Amino acid sequence: MSVLIKASGLGPVRLVFKQLSASRALSLSTKYYAETDTSKQKSSAEHFDIIIGGGGLVGTALAVALAKNKVLSDKRILLLEGAPPFRGFNVETQYGNRVSAINGNSVELFKSIGAWDYMQERRVKHVKQMQVWDACSDALIKFQDEHFAADVACIVENDLMLDAMYAQLADKNNMPNVEVRNNARIEALRLSVDTGDNYSQVHLKDGKTLTCELMIGADGANSLVRKQMNIDVFSVDYERRGVVATVQLEDACDNAVAWQRFLPTGPVALLPLSETLSSVVWSTTIAHAKELLDMPATDFTKALNEAFFKEYPKDGVVVNAMNTLNSLIGRDPNILRQYPPAVNDVIDKSRASFPLGFLHASSYVCSGAALIGDAAHRVHPLAGQGVNLGFSDVRELVKVLADAAYAGARLGDKHYLIKYEQRSLAKNVPIMVGVHGLHTLYSTTFTPVVLLRSLGLQLTDTFSPIKNLFMKRAMG
Ligand SMILES: Cc1cc2nc3c(=O)[nH]c(=O)nc-3n(C[C@H](O)[C@H](O)[C@H](O)COP(=O)(O)OP(=O)(O)OC[C@H]3O[C@@H](n4cnc5c(N)ncnc54)[C@H](O)[C@@H]3O)c2cc1C
């Protein structure tokens, strides 16, 4: 079912509810398994304890975390990635245009699996402050450690995170129980929950069939594993794209602040990479994203500087209310305001764009299978939470599987998997609702909404307990 809702000032929002029909599941089964004796399948197929479908950031982190866990050291683990082998990361080359703001919990995961030093030795940018403000009202919020000691986030290239994971996975002495196969696209699945057997069958594009006790879907937002689990999803197509680029700053500086301004078309963020370079994530309409990609470099630079510095028309009601609030709480907004560094060039070929949407699976597990990362949940990048939620799933799932193995239970035992689901839902849902709410709140110039969000932002910035709560939730 697909419903198109037109909300005042919000533009069209497409809500899509999907459920795989039994007939589709049947047709997949029919294609590969008609007249197949499943016991013969297992005896002829290669068997693993755990198969992870998808070697993106979250799937590779899970493979390393499982292999590093002592209780699971006798388990045979296979990571299947449809793409060719990862090309590696070279610190001498230009920064990649895909970067992530990583929170404290993700850094803890990397430390626990021995990947953090590897990244730090190459290039990680420590962010000491974040400033977020509204183009329609100038309401602003700053996040920082009181003494500028702790990071509010770290900016890491996605390729460097992958490189750190694949470097570990390639070390056979370090992790003999895990194997990686590239160019290994999963074409079809027959999950144990459907067959009643104790194992799932994984059918690859090259015709090979594998079996496993536990199937993990880390195969991204269009997850085949999720579809085969017959799980409902709630999804919203934002009809926006995230334009990314690496840009050169006009003047070298400390560059330890992450900046984000909410424009009427969506948020634009400038994330520090080095003293002279920053990374852009600009969420905007599909037509505008195309323009930003196609325009000459000088025009892009001009448009980006305008996005951060241009004065937008402000509603008198909002201006008056903000002035009243500022005088009541004794705050001079001009003293508090900082401005981002100006940009003077965009690095050649660094511009690209990605579709933006929201997705949440109604369940993350079934007997013999579990979902992690974008396969289970996808959020707008405005709060830099997507992959952090995926890394949080990794930590929760490994704990639960170690508990199951320690107790002598089957890895696919739903009683254990459900604990993973409960713990992850408790962490993910409030953040996902918050991020989706922010996207909705900032997608309009409707005066009452601008007024409400501006007063809310300014008050949150003023009252430390509320702000600290946000920081704790989002920054780990
Ligand atoms: C513009 C932008 C900026 C972002 N910034 C941030 C940020 O600052 N902080 C943050 O936390 N998050 C951020 N995110 C979100 C983050 O990028 C995602 O949450 C994260 O990449 C999801 O990782 P994943 O491994 O779950 O899925 P994916 O990256 O989608 O990986 C899935 C993998 O599975 C493989 N695969 C798929 N199907 C199959 C199959 N059938 N067989 C075998 N393999 C298969 C794919 O090839 C892929 O490698 C951002 C997202 C965007 C778009």
Quaternary organisation: single chain
Using only CA atoms, what is the Rg?
Answer: 24 Å
Q: What is the domain tally?
A: 1
Task: Supply the helix-strand structural class.
Answer: alpha+beta
Strand runs, count: 22
Could you give the distance between the termini?
37 Å
Q: At the first level of CATH, what is the class?
A: Alpha Beta
Give the uncertain stretches in residue-range form. 1-38
Main sheet makeup:
11 strands, mixed
Mean pLDDT: 86
- Bound chemical compounds: flavin-adenine dinucleotide
Spell out the CATH superfamily: FAD/NAD(P)-binding domain
What percent of residues are in strands?
A: 25-35%
How many DSSP helices? Answer: 16
Helix % is 25-40%
Cofactor: FAD
Domain FAD-binding: 49-288, 370-405
EC number: 1.14.15.45, 1.14.15.46
Subcellular location: Mitochondrion inner membrane
Write a structural description.
- By secondary structure, this protein is α+β, with helices and mostly antiparallel strands.
- The protein has a single domain, classed as FAD/NAD(P)-binding domain (3-Layer(bba) Sandwich).
- 39% of the residues lie in helices and 28% in strands.
- Strands 1, 2, 7, 8, 14, 15, 16, 17, 18, 19 and 22 form an eleven-stranded mixed sheet that branches. Strands 3, 4, 10, 11, 12, 13, 20 and 21 form an eight-stranded mixed sheet that branches.
- Bound molecules: flavin-adenine dinucleotide.
- Residues 53-59, 80-83, 100-101, 185-186, 218-220, 224, 242, 244, 281, 354, 373-374, 381, 384-388, 390 line the site of flavin-adenine dinucleotide.
- Component of a multi-subunit COQ enzyme complex.
- This is Ubiquinone biosynthesis monooxygenase COQ6, mitochondrial.
- Its main location: mitochondrion.
- Pathway: Cofactor biosynthesis; ubiquinone biosynthesis.
